[in-house]
Amino acid sequence: MTANLNGIRSAASKGFFPWFLTQEIDVLCVQETKAQQHQLSEQILAVPGYVSLFEDAEKRGYSGVALYARIAPDRVHRGIGLADLDAEGRYLQADWGNLSIASFYAPSGTSGAERQAQKERYMERLTTMFGEMLADQRQYILCGDMNIAHTTRDIKNWRSNQNTPGFLPHERAWLDHVFDDIGICDAFRAVDQRDEQYTWWSMRANARANNVGWRIDYHFVTPNLRASVREAIITPQPFFSDHAPLIITYDLDLPTHQPHYPPLGLTS
Amino acid sequence: MTANLNGIRSAASKGFFPWFLTQEIDVLCVQETKAQQHQLSEQILAVPGYVSLFEDAEKRGYSGVALYARIAPDRVHRGIGLADLDAEGRYLQADWGNLSIASFYAPSGTSGAERQAQKERYMERLTTMFGEMLADQRQYILCGDMNIAHTTRDIKNWRSNQNTPGFLPHERAWLDHVFDDIGICDAFRAVDQRDEQYTWWSMRANARANNVGWRIDYHFVTPNLRASVREAIITPQPFFSDHAPLIITYDLDLPTHQPHYPPLGLTS
DNA sequence: CGTAGTATG
DNA sequence: CATACTACG
């Protein structure tokens, strides 16, 4: 499951974690924790049956990603190698044997040219990383909020948003390149071709009730996992955030679904 | 009526003005509007049957007093003659013939020595003004939040608050001086000798439910009005703010209770 | 604890 | 429009 929670504390106060525990999830990738680990309650730090990992922004109340897993990873990687963006808590990867899963959060470009430039630096770095991921033969699932809708069926009002960051022609072309040229798989689209399958709705103007949304949250997977993608589910209910969680089920031979990882409180 | 509304917009959203209109009030003095006039809705600016006057802080969202009256005053005075404190919107006086009514808001000293020093400058200036008011023979009613509880019966936990700004020995002694030496009348105490008659409760720790309060809101009246004080009522219900409105009824010969001042929208 | 402001999205 | 942080009380 990947979920931009728009404040992990806010989502927790709306019952996210009790609901999450009903979903039988092996790995949860969270974006926009908007908190530093020292500010988190036990309910958030020590989810029964999971190890939790946090990659916080240096700036309080801003950005930040997390990853919860039933099985403790062998190794953890933080950041994408760009110091300023890494200080914003935007990439956290866990490795289990041949499999890596990451929680990523691309910058939003909606607050101005400077942030759009940072978003594009993040995109460029991902381009390089995707190439390396394909080359090293391991299996990768990058889960997160890319802040880009791909095609006209991934956004309600595509015409009026052609000049809006998140649906700019060159952003969409970058996703074309990632999927068509590099060969990364959009796991949702591997199994679901329907339109109006959105993962984010503006909080303004009743956008969610009218399903005026965008599909900007993804599982980016290496082609060696394409055949393993079994099912994709967006869960807009219950409401925890302006984003809906996206659950993708993979057929994998890894012991990622042990009945219960002992709740050892291994919170880092 | 005097009421520290701790945000006039917040109080309005809780229904303060509809309730106020049921109370048959001639003059309303408001403190802590926490807004500038240009931010106010018509519901707040144009209360039917009243003229409204606002004395805002220069700093947005901070302090500010207002005065509503059934009868338009002959003259309005703003500030106490101390430029820095006057920039915080802490004094607004309206005159009708021989009668003046003011809405005042003394600085709080609870956030540090610097603010306590400002509070004491405000107190000193009031001392001078009280002397002048007695000398000029007019009738004065100064309504507002003094941020000082007078005696041990004006505060729940007097022992533990002897070192707390708002109940410091020299603050209490200043009120002794104002009442006993200068001759200003505490209109509430002119007609009500009960203890536990509080006008403010901390918003923390369930203080209001347990009536852990302070009487820090006053009508300060010149001695030529003492005999006119008929009744004092604190209205802790309904809840609009951390302060309760204080209503004092005066027997006066002035036309302050015309059935309805025409709602002309005279909002300044 | 609660009303404001601010940044950020 | 919503989650944060901050100031102030």
Trace the largest sheet of chain A across and list its strands.
Answer: 5-6-7-8-12-9
For the record, what CATH class of chain A applies?
A: Alpha Beta
* Oligomer type: homodimer
Helical stretch tally of chain A: 7
Architecture of chain A in CATH?
4-Layer Sandwich
In N-to-C order, the SSE pattern of chain A is EHHEHEEEHEEHEHEHEEEEE
In the predicted model, the low-confidence regions of chain A spanning at least 5 consecutive residues are 256-268
Number of domains of chain A: 1
* Terminal Cα span of chain A: 20 Å
Overall radius of gyration of chain A: 17 Å
Tell how many strands the DSSP assignment of chain A holds: 14
Secondary structure category of chain A = alpha+beta
Q: How would the global form of chain A be characterised? A: globular
CATH topology of chain A: Deoxyribonuclease I, Chain A
List keywords for this structure.
Deoxyribonuclease I, Chain A, disordered C terminus, six-stranded mixed β-sheet, four-stranded mixed β-sheet, globular, alpha+beta, 14 strands, about 270 residues, homodimer
